[in-house]
Write a structure and sequence with these properties.
Elements: H1 3-9, H2 13-30, H3 32-56, H4 71-91, H5 93-96, H6 99-105, H7 107-113, H8 118-124, H9 133-148, H10 155-181, H11 183-186, H12 190-200, H13 212-225, H14 230-240, H15 245-275
Helix pairs in contact: 4-9, 4-10, 4-14, 10-12, 10-14, 10-15, 14-15
Length: 281
């Protein structure tokens, strides 16, 4: 078989993803009432979340004394959190949540037989389009917040922002798929999904608040052992605060942490597939 024939047999992952996206959109539009209700529910939660922080800033000018995270600087941070979470919830959450059920019922057998990378198929087969309503909300909040802060980000910082936003998405996805892979050995692992939500809560706040005898060890663990704190902190700094040398060092580390997270989760997923035995066996 010549090289051209071999190349033609390889799946075009972009086209496959486009088919997944189209099918998911068709499914959502088939049940439009449910889609609208889910979108409104997500937006309602965003409004309540924003209202909570508006209330907080009625009593304090900034989060943490001397940290630079004033009201609108923090809303840039909050917008970044919403961007990351909406992308994770739209593209990965619906699929990873079903992985343990596929292991239990034998659905993973059929996924492994398809001529496409199993992790790609498991991760992106379904898309929750209603979760992207949060992305639009975050976009509006970001625009308003940037118009109110004193600091004007440079063109380079604005260009790097979406790159590090995707790095944050990749880190959260890596943690999610690694936890999902454990269902091959543990069966049902709902408690581990709860663990994922608890851990990711640490990413919702600026790392400057983690100080003192309790906060400092937490900051070190969730920056270097489990790099959750860099998910939002790094991209938000590019737009909200003047960058100092430590920020650039943290940005460089974020790239390494992203690569390590993806590689580690990939290794764990492949080891899980090697250990998998068909549900019928």
């Amino acid at each position: 078989m010549d090289r051209t024939a071999k190349t033609s047999m390889r799946p075009n992952y972009f086209r496959v993803f486009a088919v997944f996206a189209r099918n998911s959109l068709v499914r959502d539009m088939t049940f439009r009432s449910n889609f609208i209700i889910e979108a409104i529910s997500s937006l309602s939660w965003m409004f309540m979340n924003l209202g909570f922080y508006l209330l907080v800033f009625e009593y304090t000018p900034s989060i943490g004394q001397g940290t630079g995270w004033g009201k609108y600087e923090y809303f840039v941070f909050l917008s970044t959190t919403m961007f990351v979470n909406s992308l994770v919830q739209a593209f990965f959450m619906p699929n990873v949540e079903e992985f343990s059920e596929q292991v239990r019922t034998g659905g993973l057998d059929f996924a492994m037989l398809k001529p496409i990378d199993t992790q790609f198929l498991i991760s992106l087969a379904k898309i929750d389009w209603s979760s992207l309503s949060n992305f639009v909300f975050a976009l509006v909040l970001l625009g308003v917040s940037l118009s109110r802060i004193v600091y004007t980000p440079s063109l380079g910082a604005a260009i790097l922002y979406p790159l590090y936003l995707l790095c944050g998405v990749a880190i959260l996805y890596s943690l999610m798929i690694a936890l999902a892979a454990t269902s091959v050995w543990l069966g049902r692992n709902q408690n581990l999904y709860d663990f994922w939500f608890y851990i990711t809560n640490f990413s919702r706040y600026p790392m400057e608040i983690y100080q003192g005898p309790i906060g400092t060890p937490l900051r070190q663990v969730f920056t270097f052992a489990i790099p959750i704190l860099i998910v939002v902190n790094v991209p938000a700094r590019f737009l909200a605060l003047p960058l100092v040398e430590e920020d650039w060092l943290l940005a460089g580390y974020a790239l390494l942490a992203t690569a390590a997270s993806l590689a580690g989760s990939r290794w764990m997923f492949l080891r899980a597939l090697d250990s998998y035995r068909s549900a019928s066996s």
